[in-house]
Amino acid sequence: GEAGLQQDRGIKITADLVSLNVSPWLPAKMQANLLGHFSGHIDYQSTGTGLETAKAQGHLTLANGVIHDLKAVRAYIAATKSPDPGDLKLDVCETDVKMAEGGISLENLKVESKGVFRLEGHATMAKDKSVGGELTLGLNDAYLRWLPTAETTIFTRVDGPYHIAVVHLSGTSQKPEQD
Q: Which of 60, 72, 126, 130 is least surrounded by Cβ atoms within 10 Å, i.e. has the fewest?
């Protein structure tokens, strides 16, 4: 990479990541819940030292990914009496990443724990912490039995073992919303 140290405070970095532990990059309250190692490529440049002028793009893949003891999963299992999947091995977890003007977007997002769920789509968070995007969520039959009409009113399409629903994201990072 390159870094300007005089009047030009620009930074230009090309990084190839190989087996980078994901936990230290997560918020402290989630570090024990997502395990695995990122690999990928990132091109980063800025005209100053702050993130306001930074632009980055790349692709990241999570290997050996596991969702462990996530509060939202425990709450879903308790509320719906669905089978407990235990630790969710992530068979697929990858995305294209873009960062610009203080915001970040995840494009071509794909996450799957085979036989339990699949998530695909795109999501953004702007500098003002507003979120947006569209995700397709697929759940296996065992996780929809608690709601008898879910397969006809919410999860209206079938793709392999999954019943698919489209989720539109909005709100903010502190108060996310979906349709």
A: 72
